[in-house]
From TrEMBL:
Pfam family, one: DUF3632
InterPro entries, per the entry: OpdG, Oxopyrrolidines_Biosynth-assoc
Protein name per UniProt: Uncharacterized protein
Length: 309
C-alpha cells in the first residue's frame, strides 16, 4: 500500500467530501489533490467551456472563443510549434468528469461543442488539410487522462467514482456519434469490470479498496459504454482489432490467469453475451451499491434493445 495515496484519500475525505460541496467542485478539488491530468491553473479554455455548460454562453459564441487561439496559430503558421493541445483537451475531458453521466442535457451540450469543433473546415496552412476534423492530439491526451482511473491515478471515493464513469460516458458518446473512436477504452473498461476476478486489495496494491468498492467503481464505468455506445460496439466486426502491433498487445494484456473470459481479447458476439450475463449477475448482488445495481440493470436492458433491432 502507498502511504502517499492513503494520505491523499484522507485529505479528500476530510477536506472535500465532509464539506458537502457540489459534485463539480468536489471533482475540481480531488483533481488537484490526486494530481490528475487536468486544465492548467491559468487555462485559456476551461473557463470558456465551464461558462458554456453553465448556460452563460451559447454554442456559437463558445466555438468562436475555443477556436480563436487555434485560428491565430494557423494564420501565424505556428500550429505545430508546441501548441497547447493538452490544455484544450484536458479542459474538455475534465469538464466531462464534472458532469453526472445521468445529466443528458449537459452531455448533449458538450457533444454538440465537439461536433461543431470537428466540423470547422479551416485548413492548416502547413499542408492545406482541415485543422479541426481529426481532433488533433485528442487521442494522446484522452489516453493520458484515462490513467486517472480508480486504483491508478484515482481512488475509490464517491467523487472519483463519479468522475471515472462520466469520463467513460463522454468517450462512449464520442464513439457512438462518430466523432472519435475510443472503443479500445471500452474493451479495457468492460474487461476490468466484468471479466476479471475482483478481490479486496492486497499488500501489493498501491491503493486499498474492498471488493465492493472496486465493483462500485468499475461497473458504472463499464455500463455507460454499452448505454452510450452499445450500438457502435455491437456492430463492430468480430476480431476487428489488429492481431499484431501496439493495440493488439494492449488487448492481449487484458487477459490474465484470473480472467473469467480466457478466450480472444477481441470483440465477438459471444463476448457481448458474456458481458450481458455478467451485468445481470451484478445487478442481482445485494452487497454492492444501489446505483451500481441500477446501472448494471440498465446496461442489460440497453443491450437487449440493441440486439432486438
Amino acid at each position: 500500500m502507498s502511504a502517499r495515496l492513503d494520505k491523499q484519500t484522507h485529505k479528500i475525505e476530510q477536506e472535500v467530501i465532509s464539506q458537502n460541496l457540489p459534485l463539480n467542485v468536489q471533482i475540481d478539488k480531488v483533481a488537484k489533490i490526486r494530481g490528475w491530468f487536468r486544465p492548467r491553473d491559468d487555462s485559456k479554455w476551461f473557463p470558456i467551456i465551464r461558462a458554456y455548460l453553465n448556460g452563460e454562453t451559447d454554442l456559437d459564441e463558445t466555438l468562436r472563443k475555443v477556436t480563436a487561439p487555434i485560428d491565430e496559430a494557423i494564420n501565424a503558421d505556428t500550429l505545430n510549434d508546441g501548441f497547447p493541445w493538452d490544455d484544450l483537451w484536458y479542459s474538455v475531458i475534465h469538464s466531462a468528469k464534472r458532469i453526472s453521466y445521468r445529466d443528458e442535457a449537459a452531455f448533449g451540450n458538450l457533444i454538440a461543442l465537439m461536433k461543431a469543433f470537428k466540423e470547422r473546415d479551416v485548413p492548416a496552412k502547413e499542408n492545406g488539410e482541415p485543422a479541426y476534423e481529426g481532433l488533433p492530439e485528442f487521442g494522446l491526451y484522452s489516453r493520458e487522462a484515462f490513467n486517472d482511473s480508480p486504483g491508478g491515478g484515482a481512488g475509490y471515493t464517491a467523487p472519483e467514482v463519479s468522475a471515472w464513469a462520466s469520463c467513460n460516458y463522454f468517450l462512449a458518446r464520442l464513439t457512438q456519434d462518430g466523432l472519435f473512436d475510443s472503443s479500445l477504452f471500452a474493451f479495457w473498461t468492460l474487461s476490468e469490470a466484468l471479466e476479471q476476478n475482483i478481490t479486496d486489495s492486497g499488500e501489493e496494491d498501491d491503493m486499498a479498496a474492498t471488493m465492493v468498492q472496486k465493483i462500485d467503481a468499475f461497473v458504472p464505468a463499464a455500463a455507460v459504454w454499452v448505454i452510450g455506445a452499445g450500438k457502435a460496439l455491437y456492430e463492430q466486426k468480430e476480431d476487428n482489432h489488429p492481431k499484431h502491433g501496439k493495440k493488439a498487445t494492449m488487448l492481449e494484456d487484458l487477459k490474465d490467469h484470473e480472467s473469467m473470459w480466457p478466450r480472444s481479447a477481441r470483440f465477438s458476439r459471444e463476448r457481448w453475451a458474456f458481458w450481458k450475463q455478467r451485468f445481470g449477475e451484478i445487478a442481482a448482488m445485494e452487497t454492492i451499491g444501489e446505483e451500481t445495481r441500477k446501472v448494471a440493470n440498465e446496461a442489460v436492458r440497453a443491450m437487449e434493445k440493441i440486439e432486438d433491432k
